[in-house]
Specification:
Dna Ligase, domain 1, D-amino Acid Aminotransferase, Chain A, domain 1, eight-stranded antiparallel beta sheet, 39 strands, globular, metal ion binding, Biotin_BS, ligase
């Protein structure tokens, strides 16, 4: 076993690897960019080396700098984690040339499986089923267009060198093929430095099922069962589970056999995942990921094995810790990816400071893998994944109840997250029934993306109670600091000389102003809502906004976080933002007809010019953020009055992009 390893990654996976290494007595070296100097993974490791500025190309993707860091610290091996250089054959070769063990498969396996075209040709020779498609290594746009016609629309455009949904587009007809191909090439070039493209027939209701494989240098190859990763947005996984539910025994066995055949075809070593599309009891090879998967914890939960430990042992030349006959699975596990993104804005990335963070209670049934702490800043430079919530129980129904419950405990404020969206997926009857496909989110969009609703009476009362209890606390502190602490003017019970003891509180709920009338009563408040309903409320307020309340005799727990002029009410897995008076006034101001950036990012295309007439839904600008492209479309028909950013310009969240005028 190694005595010291360097972890060439950041965030939750770097923390995850460090945890296992520490348990095994292996010292760890963290690497960090300037944006990550105070990150959690740096503090968890024994040593840390700065790589460079925040952009990945100047830090986490600098192969020579990583090799230098390993040599300078005496690390015997490098664990690449996932993403970044984890499937980069040149990096594995550089490690080998420097006498450093790359904790991953051999270079030829990375190279072959890193090329979707080459890997599919190899799988065809190995007898692994493939989706009909066009897999030539080099192809012009014209040849790809011809191939799309031959396959038949709809087709799936995929980056030959990549994964994770980057460089991937579904195209329904030939008219949309050219623009989608250009966008896929740009995205692939930005993410992988390689814009080669392949095509596949698009299946209309497939499941995404993958098989975890492990192999050692002695020629032993095993599977650690399967996972279902069908719940996806933008071709990136959202919720995964193990084992894949509802598979017939022959189908499950066929998947395992095909995965073993795929691994043996490239003389594989270490951890790998063979991904398939499953539709109508048939399955087709997609790709093999030559690294540890983001969703590996669900396999760990059902097998009781530590996959990172297995990686370290195999890389050190040891045999697999267990043979196929000794590997068993028990129960069911889910993983939900908590991301800094806004589902209501087409999952636009969200950046900023995490002002409030409360994880769920963890234990044998609930696990949280994360690389963040309260106060961290989410950067535009990296993947939006914040944490992975993993649950286990004796069967799928019980595990799903665990997932739903744990999601209600997670609280994040300061940035947009997908927590409520994950809760909506977990609560959906079709998900509970195991009716899964990669189009699940699209199919059930109306239930998963409900229209914004006004704050309910309890939410308004909780916000009012927070304001009132906070004011009582501040008043008491001012009284103690005064020369006359017992003066009635320091009372916070609404006392007024010759006047009624009431208080008016205005809140902003979206575009609406909500006026609450509070009457102070001994030991409680009476809060009159605009509807005329009056609620009786009392409670206690913790130092971090924890609110234990009683509303009309019913106990309620919530957390209220003040962010500038906003109150964020967090309760039961939901959050509602209410503005305080100053913000309410500003919110009603006319902001004109400008179209603003939905996130910070770089402008990669400007598709219109001033004076041009545009239709509702017409693409105007293409932005890139967190390695993904987002197209900004016209919200209504009009005339482009002004275009503010230039191609290549970095813009901030909310920056004006285009001024639109009504059509004459």
């Amino acid at each position: 076993m190694f005595t010291k390893i360097l972890i060439a990654n950041r965030g939750e996976i770097a923390c995850r690897i460090a945890r296992t290494a520490r348990r095994l007595g292996v010292r760890t070296v963290a690497v960090f960019s300037d944006a990550d100097a105070q990150a959690r993974h740096v503090s968890l490791c024994d040593e840390a080396v700065r790589l460079g500025p925040a952009p990945p190309a100047e830090s986490y993707l600098r192969i020579p700098r990583l090799i230098e860091a390993a040599q300078a610290t005496g690390a015997q091996a490098i664990h690449p984690g996932y993403g970044f250089l984890s499937e980069n054959a040149a990096f594995a070769e550089a490690c080998q040339a420097a006498g450093i063990t790359f904790i991953g498969p051999p270079v030829p396996a990375i190279r072959v499986m890193g090329s979707k075209a080459e890997s599919k040709a190899l799988m065809a020779r190995a007898g692994v089923p493939l989706i009909p498609g066009f897999h030539a290594e080099e192809a012009s746009d014209a040849r790809l267009t011809q191939a799309a016609r031959e396959i038949g629309f709809p087709v799936l455009i995929k980056a030959s060198a990549g994964g994770g949904g980057k460089g991937m587009r579904v195209v329904d007809d030939e008219a949309g093929f050219g623009p989608a191909l250009a966008a896929a090439r740009r995205e692939a070039r930005a993410a992988f430095g390689d814009d080669r493209i392949l095509l596949e027939k698009y299946l209309d209701h497939p499941r995404h099922v993958e098989v975890q494989v492990f192999a050692d240098r002695l020629g032993t190859t095993v599977t650690l069962f399967d996972r279902d990763c069908s719940i996806q947005r933008r071709h990136q996984k959202v919720i995964e589970e193990a084992p894949a539910p509802g598979l017939a025994a022959p189908l499950r066995a066929g998947l395992a056999e095909a995965a073993i055949a795929a691994a043996r075809a490239v003389a594989y070593e270490g951890a790998g995942t063979v991904e398939f599309l499953v539709q109508d009891d048939a399955f087709y090879f997609i790709e093999m990921n030559t690294r540890l998967q983001v969703e590996h914890p669900v396999t760990e939960m059902i097998t009781g094995l530590d996959l990172v430990e297995w990686q370290l042992r195999v890389a050190a030349g040891e045999p697999l810790p267990k043979g196929a006959d000794a590997i068993t699975a028990q129960g069911h596990a889910f993983e939900a990816r908590l991301c800094a993104e806004d589902p209501a804005r087409d999952f636009a990335p969200s950046t900023g400071k995490i002002r409030h963070l409360r994880p769920p209670a963890t234990g044998p049934h609930v696990r949280l893998d994360t690389g963040i702490v309260e106060g961290d800043r989410v950067s535009v430079h990296y993947d939006p994944l914040l944490a992975k919530l993993i649950v286990w129980d004796v069967d799928r129904d019980a595990a799903l109840r665990r997932l739903r419950g744990a999601l209600t405990e997670v609280q994040v404020a300061g940035i947009a997250t997908n927590i409520e969206f994950l809760g909506a997926v977990a609560a959906h009857p079709a998900f509970a029934a195991g009716a899964l496909s990669t189009r699940f989110i699209e199919t059930h969009a109306s239930a998963l993306f409900p229209a914004p609703r006004p704050a309910d009476p309890e939410t308004l009362t909780l916000a009012a109670l927070f304001v009132l209890l906070k004011e009582q606390r501040l008043t008491a502190e001012r009284a103690r600091a005064s020369h006359d602490p017992y003066s009635p003017w320091h009372r916070a019970d609404g006392w007024r000389l010759n006047d009624d003891n009431q208080y008016t509180l205005d809140l902003r709920d979206g575009a609406e102003l909500v006026r609450l009338i509070v009457h102070y009563r001994p030991g409680r408040f009476e809060i009159a809502l605009p509807s005329g309903r009056v609620l009786t409320a009392l409670g206690t307020l913790g130092d971090h906004g924890e609110l234990v309340a009683e509303i009309d005799g019913l106990a309620r727990r919530a957390t209220v976080v003040r962010l500038g002029d906003d109150l964020v009410v967090l309760s039961g897995g939901h959050q509602h933002v209410l503005g305080l008076p100053k913000a309410a006034e500003e919110a009603t101001a006319d902001v004109g007809g400008s179209l603003n950036a939905p996130m910070p990012g770089r402008v990669v295309q400007v598709l219109v010019a001033p004076g041009e007439a545009v239709e509702r839904g017409q693409p105007l600008i293409v932005m890139e953020a967190m390695k993904m492209e987002t197209t900004i479309a016209a919200p209504y028909a009009g005339i482009v009055a002004q275009v503010f950013p230039a191609v290549g310009e970095q813009v901030e969240d909310g920056s004006a992009l285009i001024a639109l005028e009504d059509a004459p």
